[in-house]
Amino acid sequence: MTTTNEREIPMEELERVTIRFAGDSGDGMQVTGTQFTRTSAVFGNDVSTLPDFPAEIRAPAGSLPGVSGFQISFSSTDIHTPGDEPDVLVAMNPAALKVNLGELPAGAALIVNEDAFTATNLAKAGYASNPLKDGSLHNWNVFSIPISTLNTRALEGLEMTSKQMDLTKNFFALGVMFWLYERSMEPTLQWIGDKFKKRPVFADANKRALRAGYAFGETTEIFHSRYMVPRAPQRPGTYRNLTGNEGAALGFVAASVKANRPLFYGSYPITPASDILHELASYKTFGVKTFQAEDEIAAIGSAIGASYGGAMGMTGTSGPGIALKSEAMGLAVMVELPLVVVDVQRAGPSTGMPTKNEQADLLQVLYGRNSDSPVAVVAPATPGETFWYAFEAWRLALKYMTPVVFLSDAFLATGAEPWPIPSVDDLPDISVPNRTEKAGFRPYDRDPQTLARPWAVPGTPGLEHRIGGLEKADLTGNVSYDPENHHRMQELRQAKIAGIANDIPELEVNGPAEGDLLILGWGSTYGSIRSAVERLQARGHSVAHAHMRYLNPFPRNTGDVVKAYKRVMIPEINLGQLSMLIRARYLVDAQGYNKVRGKPFRISEIEAEAERLIAELRGASR
Amino acid sequence: MTDTLSPGGQPALSPQNAAIIQLTRKDFVSDQEVRWCPGCGDYSILAQTQKVMPDFGYPKENIVFISGIGCSGRLPYYMNTYGFHSIHGRAPAIATGLKAARPDLMVWVITGDGDALSIGGNHLIHSMRRNVDIRVIMFNNRIYGLTKGQASPTSEIGKVTKSTPLGTVDYPISPLTIALAAEASFIARSVDTHTEHLQQTLTRAGFHRGSVFTEVLQNCNIFNDGAHREFTDRDVREDRMLVLEHGQPMIFGKDRDMGLRLNGYQPEVVKLGDDFRVEDLLVHDEQDPLIAFMLSRLYWPDFPVPVGVIRDVRRPTHDELVTNQIEEAIAARGEGNLQALLSGNDTWTVK
Q: Which residue among B97, B336, B349 places its CB closest to the CB of A306?
C-alpha cells in the first residue's frame, strides 16, 4: 500500500463535466456552486449554470422542500446549457439525495455527507432505512464522507460555536471538488478574505474548511482518479461571469449613458426580477433613480411619470406583476411615451412556482391588454445576451416613442455564463432629442420614418399641452370621439410597431437554408435547441435552428424562413404560444413541442422529438 | 428672470418671482371648452385654481397637472400648463415618478373621492407617507358622478344610490384622518362655493413643499345635490363650520360666540360668556398632531366642520432625499465609470 503522500493518482482528461451541489437551503449551496463556477470560468472553461432554489427562504431544516441546488457544467468546448444530467451529485443531507437522485444517471458519482444521515434527517426525508447502508445506491459510485466531523476537526481551536463551525462545511465539500477536478483554491480563498474582511475568525474558518477538504481529497484513498477538463477555446478578449439579471441591469444603465438621459426604475419586489432592482439601486453614481413602489401598478405608473418628464422610465416584474401593470401599459401605448417593461417570467398561472422557469407570458405581453394595444417585444436567448437586448429595448423605446417589453425568464435571470466585456466606445449612440421648437408643434405629429410623436417634456416653454388615456385626435392630440379618427389612430399605432421590422436584423438560420426540419425557438431554450441541432447535424440530418430575439414585430424574413423546411418544430416551455402565432401568421403547419415542468428542456428530449419528426417525414415520403 | 431661480434650475416659490414673471389668471386658461354639468362645483374650483396660479412665481411651463378618472379628471385639459389625464386612481403614482425624475416641476394632482380613496387609495397613502412634493386636491362630492351616481367611499351610510337601492352598508372613510395616518405634511379642507377661503387654501397648498392633501367639499348638483348643504349654505355656514387659523383660538358662529374646548380628552362645543372665556378654548396649532387628529374626526351634526389648514409641517421631501443620495454617492465615489461597471471586479483575459 502506498503512503498517502506518495500516492500516485491517475489524472483522467474529460471534455465536459456536470456537477450538481445539493443541500439544505441553509447549507450554502448557491455560494458553493457560484465559487466553483467562478473558478472554472477564470481557469478558462466554458461554463453554464443553473441554480435551483426553493421558494421558502428557510423551509424546515432537512426537509424535502428545503433542498437547494446548483448545477454547473464546465467544458473544454463551447457549451450552451448547464447539462441534461449531472455526472456528479454532491448531497449534503438525505433530503438533497432524495430530491436529486432521480435525475442522476446510473454509474454517476455520488458524494454524500454521511454525518447528515442521522435517524432524524432520514425520517424528515422520508427514508425508512439508511440508503448509505441498505444497498439501494448500488447503481451509483458512492463516496461517503463524514464531512461534518472532518470539518469540525479542522476548525478545532477557533473561537466559534459548533453550530457556526458546521456552517462552513460547504467549503469543505468545495475543497474536495476542487481537488477532484484540479481547480485552484486561490480565487475562492481571495473571495472568502474579502467577504469576511470584518470577521477574521469566519474568514479563517472558511479558508481552513476549504483547505481541509482539498487535503482530504489528496490524502484519502477513496478516490482512485482525478479529472481534468482543459481550457475551452474562447475568443480572445476579457471576460467576466454574468447572470441574466446582472446583464439586464448593466444593459439598462449602458443605454442610459448612451442616450444621455437619466434612468428611472420603479419596481415592486417579486421573484425572480428583484435582483434587477437591487443592481440598479447600487448604480447611484450613474444618476440612476430607483423607486420601490407600493405595488406593481405604482411601479409602472411612476415609470410613466418619469418618462413623461423626459427620463428613461422603466419597470420590472414577473408574470403576475405584468397582469397588474397591463392597464398602465395600455396608457403608455395611448400617450406614446418611451417605456421599458421587464418581465422575468416564472411558472404560473397565478403565484405558480415563483422560483421555477417558464416562458408562458408571451401571449400576455403581446395581447394581455384591452383593445388592440401593440408594444414591441424583445427576448434575449442567453444570460450574456440580456445586456444587448436590454440596450436594444431602450434603443427602440426611444426611437419609436413606445413601450417595449424585455422578456426574460427565471433560467436566464439566475443562470450565468462567461461574457466578453464590450468596450463602451463600441456601443452606439441611441440619444434622441426633446422637442423644443415652438413653431408648428403638434403633440401627435409624427416622424414620417418612424411614426414617433415628438417628446415635449414639461419645462419646455411654449409647448404646454395635455395628454392622457382618452383617444387622441390625430396630430393635435386633443380628445376625440370621431369614428374615423379612432380607426386611423388604431392603424397608426399598429403601423408604428410593425415598422420596427425594418430596423432590426433578419432572422438568422444556423444550418441549411432549406431542408427537412427547422427548429424555431425563442428565449432561454436557445442552449438546449442549439446543442440538439449540433448533434443532429453531426449525424447528417438536414436540420436548422433559428432563434427569435424579436417577438413583436417578427423579423421581416420570418415567413420565408419557416416556409423553407418540410417540417417546423417549435419547442417552448409553455403549451404552444409562439407556435400558435407562427401558424396563424404564416399558415405553416408548425409543430409545438411543449413541456412545462419549471425546468429547461433537456438536449436529449429535443433531439428525440426532432428525430421522430424526421422519421415521420421519411415515412411519409416513402 | 432666470436670476431669481434657485441653482439647479429649480424655480423658487416666491412672490418676488411672481412679480417678475408677471403671469395672470388668463395665462392659465387653455383653449379647451370646459365640459362639466352646468352648476357643477368643479367650475369654481377650476376658477380659483387658475386665479391663484400666478402667485407662486413659477414659469407656467414648469407646472404640471395630473389627474385620474372621474369628473375631476378633466381639470388638466382646462389648465394651460402641462397636463396628464391618466388612469383611474393612479395619478399620485405617476406624479411620484415625474417629481422624482424632475424636482424642478411644480406638480398638482387633481382627484376625486372615488379616484383617490377607493381605486387609488394605496397610491394616495404612499405618496403622502413618502412626503412626495405634490399637491393633491381631492374634490369630495360623496358620489360617483362620471359613472352616473353610485355610492363612493365618502357616501354616508344608508345612502340610496343606483348601486345601493336599499342604502349603502359601507361606512364612510374620513379623508383627513387617512391623510394624517399617512403623514401628509400639509392637510387642509375647503369648500367649492367659499371662493375666498378656497383661494387662500390653494395658495397655502401651493407654497407648501411636501405632500399636500387638500379636500375640497364639492357639490354634484346632478347625482348628489346638496352634498354638504347642511353646513355649507350661506345662512348656516358660520354656525356650522369652524374656520381654523394657526395660533388662534377655535371660535365660530355668526356672532363669534361659540368655541371648541377640551373637556378632559373630549372636544366640546361651548358658548362664550359667563362660563367660558376665550382663554378656555383650544388654540389651533398646525404642527400639533393630536389637535390635527381631533379636528379630522369632527363633523356635522355633532360638531362644526373644521375648514382651513389642519396640519403644516416641513420635512425633507421624497425628491430631495432621492437627489441627496445620488449627490452624496457621486461626492464620495465620483461619477460612474461605465467601462469599469461593465467589467466588474472579477475578469479574466483570453489571449
A: B97
In a 3-state reduction of DSSP, which class is residue A365?
Answer: helix
Judged by CB atoms closer than 8 Å, whether chains meet at A239 and B348 is answered as: yes
Task: Name the residue facing B61 among A284, A306, A461 (closest C-beta).
Answer: A461
Each domain of chain B, given as residue ranges in start order, spans: 2-227+316-343
CB interface of A with B, residues 236-265, below 8 Å: 236-241, 250, 253-254, 257, 262, 264
CB crowding B96-126: b at 16 or more within 10 Å, else e: bbbbbbbbbbbbbbbbbbbbbbbbbbbbbbb
- The C-alpha atoms of residue B235 and residue B175 are separated, in whole angstroms, by 26
Q: Does domain A11-228 have CATH number 3.40.920.10?
A: yes
Q: Where are the domains of chain A?
A: 11-228, 241-418, 509-621
* CATH fold for domain B2-227+316-343: Rossmann fold (3.40.50)
> CATH class for domain A241-418?
alpha beta
Instruction: Output the CA angle A289-A291-A293, nearest 5 degrees.
Output: 165
A98: its cell numbers = 432524495
Q: Which helix (H) or strand (E) holds B327?
A: helix B318-333
The residue among A10 and B97 whose pLDDT is bigger is B97
Q: Are A20 and A88 in contact (CB under 8 A)?
A: yes
Pairing of strands A550-552, B106-112: unpaired
- Sorted by sequence, the CB contacts under 8 Å of residue A613 that are 6+ apart come out as A517, A567, A569, A591
- Where do runs of H (alpha helix) occur along A475-557? 483-498, 526-538
Give B160-181 pLDDT, tens digit per residue.
999 999 999 999 999 999 999 9
Enter the C-alpha cell of residue B90: 393612479
Mean pLDDT for chain A overall: 95
Predicted confidence at residue A50, as pLDDT, reads 86
Tell me the fold of A509-621. Rossmann fold (3.40.50)
Interface of B with A in 116-145 (CB under 8 A): 122-123, 125-126
Q: What is the mean pLDDT of residues B320-326?
A: 97
- The DSSP secondary structure of B34-46, one letter per residue, reads P-S-TT-THHHHH
Dist. CA B216–CA B111, nearest whole Å: 10
User: Inter-chain contact A286–B339, Cβ cutoff 8 Å?
Assistant: no
Q: How far is B51 from chain A (nearest CA, A)?
A: 18
Q: Dihedral of CA B165/B166/B170/B176: which sign?
A: positive
- ipTM value, please give it: 0.96
Phi then psi for A591, rounded to 5 degrees? Answer: -105, 125
Do B348 and A310 count as a contact with CB atoms less than 8 A apart?
no
Let me know how long chain A is.
Answer: 622
